[in-house]
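Let's do one together. I've listed all components of the complex below, 285 residues spread over two lines.
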Amino acid sequence: MKGSVIVLTCFAAGLLAGVLAGHSFAWMDDASMWLLYLLMLLVGLGVGADPDLPDMLRRLTLRDFAYPVVTIAGTLFLTLLASPLVAGVSLGDCLAINSACGYYSLSSIIIPQLKSPDTGASAIAEIGAVALLANIVRELLTLVFAPAIARIFGPRALISAAGVTSVDVCLPAIRRCCGDAYTAPAILHGTVIDLAVPWMIALLAA
Amino acid sequence: MIIGVIVGRLMSHRAKLPLPLLLSATVCLLVCLLGYSVGADRQVASALPRLGLKSIVLGAAGTIGAVLATFVLIKSMRR
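Okay, and this is what the predicted structure of the assembly comes out as:
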């Protein structure tokens, strides 16, 4: 929750600065791209430095891989049904935005950069903003409703709701609501989705 | 990311980077720049109330879809 509040505050601060300045700078696009490369490197360092990584890989079964696939499939299927309610955003962009499964930083940067310049600067910035906000909404919904989701739909459903954040932000809530036994499945789930998200976004947004 | 995983494995018993802090700082900078680009565009900034509703619809759809799909899978496996 604290992380989401900080991110929302940063977004609001940037938004306010942009409104007050009234114009953007060309170097900001390059800066965003290099920061994104840095982010991917840091994510890789975190995964590689995990001492449990070899054990986790040895214990993998086909069923463990099925849950992230079901999470992605369920996310995309309901997004497909809900997309007519989201006026002004194409079906492809709706799917690309929600294929991030809560990875708001990555989706809000990658999706705008994959859009053709012909789309228009305003439309591209709008898609980036919706990608950021929609994925933050997912994280907040999971954190707020974690106990109810675990109780009504089960521990695996809570891990699915968390999407990619089952490996970081939502992990404490998952442990609290589902028990320590679900820590490893949650980490695996988040890691698999983490690795899949850039590819899915690239496929759906291009 | 792949370079990061390899370097992370090699360095896992050596230097400890404050990765959570670095990740948070990077994400905050990225998000701040995104906020700036949205705010600097007057058309988008004025449309934010509308974008908020779209975001809630999309975020809720993704969350509910994932929950229901997993719930149905678990139920079908128990039968």
